[in-house]
Design goal:
- The structure is a single chain.
- The chain contains 3 helices and no strands.
- It starts with a helix and ends with a helix.
- It is an all-alpha fold.
Amino acid sequence: GLFSSSNYCRFERRIYPFIKMSLKSLDKFKSEVETELKDILNWWMTYAIDIDNGGFYGKIDNDNYVSSEAVKGLVLNTRILYTFSSAYALNANNEYLTKSKLINESI
């Protein structure tokens, strides 16, 4: 049948080299993703926090210019809350916890 030992061995010989190759690069990929996450969250902490009114700004352009008149959307701020909370759960960085609390208080 399909799952007989001879079919499984043929499948394993064809697929295993690709899996093995992927496992070799998995650590590198993990490191790249962690660095990217850290950079993104650092950007949000540097440019997007509304110190005067609490929470995060509703609009920032590509040059990091803040539009202080922009509405602070509930969806945006709950997504930011989820992101920082998840990042804290992932690596227990207290900065992420602090930002999560800041957002939670402003919602």
